[in-house]
Amino acid sequence: MLLVVYDIHSDRLRTRLSKYLEGYGSRIQYSVFEIRLSERFLRNIQSEMKSKFEKHFSQDDSVLVFKIPDSANILRFGYPKNEENDLILV
């Protein structure tokens, strides 16, 4: 699993990166994505991040990619963004 955390100054670049990450994983907070795919896909994502995005980062930008083993214990508190559901009353 990868945990991708970012702080990007440019709205355009931030939106582009978030749309890219949405194609592979779940947004668990506004600037945090959890990606659970095969090792090959995870390596490809890391490579694409470097080739497609890194050259556009400024001194104000930061992207952290954490590789978390499947055996890791993850504690969750509160309500992650991707678990929010709209309630529609008819």
Q: What is the secondary structure topology, with strand pairs?
A:
Blueprint: E1 2-7, H1 11-22, E2 26-29, E3 32-35, H2 39-53, E4 62-67
Antiparallel strand pairs: 1-3, 1-4, 2-3
Strand ordering within the main sheet: 2-3-1-4
Order of helices and strands, N to C? EHEEHE
Question: What is the fold-level CATH name, i.e. the topology?
Answer: Alpha-Beta Plaits
- Tally of distinct domains: 1
Describe this structure as you would to a colleague.
By secondary structure, the chain is an alpha+beta fold. It has one domain (2-70): 2-Layer Sandwich (Alpha-Beta Plaits), CATH 3.30.70.240. The protein contains 2 helices and 4 strands, in the order E-H-E-E-H-E. The protein has helices spanning 11-22, 39-53; strands spanning 2-7, 26-29, 32-35, 62-67. The chain has a 4-stranded antiparallel β-sheet, with helices on one face. A hairpin with a 2-residue loop joins strand 2 (26-29) and strand 3 (32-35). The longest helix has 15 residues, at 39-53. The mean pLDDT is 86.
Which short descriptors sum up this protein?
single chain, 90 residues, alpha+beta, Alpha-Beta Plaits, four-stranded antiparallel β-sheet
Short description:
This protein has helices at 11-22, 39-53; strands spanning 2-7, 26-29, 32-35, 62-67. The chain is α+β, with helices and mostly antiparallel strands and 90 residues long.
